[in-house]
Every structure is written in C-alpha cells, then in structure tokens.
Task: inverse folding
C-alpha cells in the first residue's frame, strides 16, 4: 500500500478538524507534522493487519487503510493494557529497580498519556529495562505492546523458580544487582546454561572445579555456532518439560543464547567462569526444600 501525498492530505485535513474540534483546519506546522505521522503510522498498522490476515485485502484506498489501521491501534492498545494488568498480578522485580521502575511505574504513565488518535506513533517512555529482543525499530503502541509481551515471558520463566532461588542467583552474580541495568532473566538463564554445558543436574546447585573443567573442555573441542545450536535444543527441551508447550518462550530465551555462549567461552579462556556461573546458597539456608530437588515449578500462566 503506497499512497501519494494527494491521497493522504484529505485524511490529514479530516484529522486536523477533529484535533481542533471542527473549529478550524489551520494548525501549526509542528502539529500538522505530528498528525501526518499519525496517519502514516496507522496505514503501516493496516499493512500489518493485512499481512496477518488469512486472506489479505487488496486495493484499499488511503482512507480505508487509515481507518483499518486506526482501529488496529485502538485494539492493540486495549490488548497491551489487558496483558499489562495480567502480568502485574504476579509481577516480581526481584529487587531490581530498573525493572520495577520501567514496568510498574513507567508503563502506567504511558497508558495515562498515550494518544491513540492524534499521536499513535509516540512511544513516550524510554523503556530503560533491557530485553532479550531488539525493539528499537518499533515505536508507539507496537513497541509498548512488544515490551510488555517480552516482560510477560520473562516473568513466566522466572516465576517458574522459587523467588529466593532467583534472588540467590542474582546476588551471587552481583551483590548490587538491585541497581544493575541488565536483563535479570539472562543472568538466571546463564546459570541454567552452565548446568547444561557441565552436564550437571539442577539438583546439584553448586558449581565445582570439575564443572568448570567440563565447560572449558566443551568450548575447546566444539565450535561456538554448534554449541549455540545445541543450547537452543536443550533450552527448548527444558521449557517443554517444565513449562509445557511454550514454543514462544523457548524462542524468546534462545535470542540470548549466542551472547551467553560467547561470554562463557571468553570466561573459560581467561579462567573467570565462576564470576558468571552464580550458584544459589545451599539448602540449609532455606533456598530449596528436600522435596523439591529441582528449582523449577510448573508454570501455569498463559503465554501471549
């Protein structure tokens, strides 16, 4: 759907009338620029709707595409808000201020000020908490909805572990983890990867010297791309076993595995694996119970 400016200007004029409550079509240049960006954003949304449709419509006029896209923006905003409230019910920042501030304080401000009609392209927030997926090409409600979806998946993964387990791993990684601007899901996932590479059951929580030797040997004898592929398969199997049919979660986590494998290989080469592979405290400190040998609970929340 490629439209000329002549096709877009009538839509802009109609939107400008609504913006001024039909009192005038004369608006400042900056406002006209904002409204034209809104029109183009909605038409881009219409393209997404058509791409996702079983039988894409063809030959839409610019006006029809705009209306379709504007409706999609409204629906996506409601879906994002609904998912936000669902995630918030069991949300746990695990003491990380960046995650807490971004999700629990920042996002309500977005929904408070977001203008789906006249400025749908505005993201408003900086979204400081880093994810395992690059969203920099998205703006407006597209980016916000994707951000919430990613945090939702991270919460599903992390909430599958006892809270003290997650905090134990984070504190061993960095005693000041509460002030880190890092993805805490990746830190926990790195520990899981360490168990996989060492061939170490999760019930054996502490990494020992032999485990580090095993990991070093793996990197010495296998190319990094092959290790990454093996890790993706292993993590997918882990997710299937403990979280059920959650291919979306496995795919999301797999986005961090190449970077994790790279960092672990470098750590193996310079002898600093122990700084990356944080182990939670022993059971006598209340981290696990004897009846729960694996630090994973069955996750019950639905993925989106």
Result:
């Amino acid at each position: 759907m490629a439209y000329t400016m002549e096709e877009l200007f009538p839509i802009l004029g109609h939107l400008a009338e609504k913006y001024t409550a039909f009192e005038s079509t004369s608006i400042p240049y900056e406002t006209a620029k904002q409204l034209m960006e809104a029109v183009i954003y909605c038409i881009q949304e219409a393209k997404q709707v058509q791409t996702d449709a079983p039988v894409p419509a063809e030959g839409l006029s610019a006006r029809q595409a705009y209306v379709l896209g504007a409706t999609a923006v409204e629906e996506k905003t409601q879906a994002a808000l609904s998912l936000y409230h669902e995630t918030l019910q069991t949300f746990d920042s695990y003491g990380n201020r960046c995650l807490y501030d971004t999700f629990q304080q920042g996002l309500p401000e977005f929904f408070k000020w977001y203008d789906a009609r006249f400025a749908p392209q505005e993201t408003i927030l900086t979204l400081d908490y880093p994810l395992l997926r690059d969203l920099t090409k998205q703006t407006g409600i597209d980016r916000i909805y994707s951000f919430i979806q990613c945090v939702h998946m991270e919460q599903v993964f992390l909430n599958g572990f006892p809270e003290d387990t997650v905090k134990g791993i984070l504190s061993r990684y960095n005693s000041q983890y509460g002030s880190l601007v890092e993805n805490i899901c990746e830190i926990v996932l790195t520990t899981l990867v360490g168990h996989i590479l060492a061939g170490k059951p999760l019930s054996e929580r502490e990494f020992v010297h032999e485990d580090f030797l095993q990991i070093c040997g793996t990197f010495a004898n296998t190319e990094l791309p092959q290790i990454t592929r093996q890790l993706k398969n292993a993590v997918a199997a882990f997710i299937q076993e403990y979280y059920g049919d959650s291919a979306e979660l496995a795919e999301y986590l797999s986005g961090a595995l190449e970077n994790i494998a790279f960092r672990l290989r470098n750590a193996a080469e310079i002898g600093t694996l122990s700084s990356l592979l944080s182990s939670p405290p022993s059971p006598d400190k209340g981290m696990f119970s004897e009846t729960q040998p694996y630090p994973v609970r069955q996750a019950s929340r639905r993925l989106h």
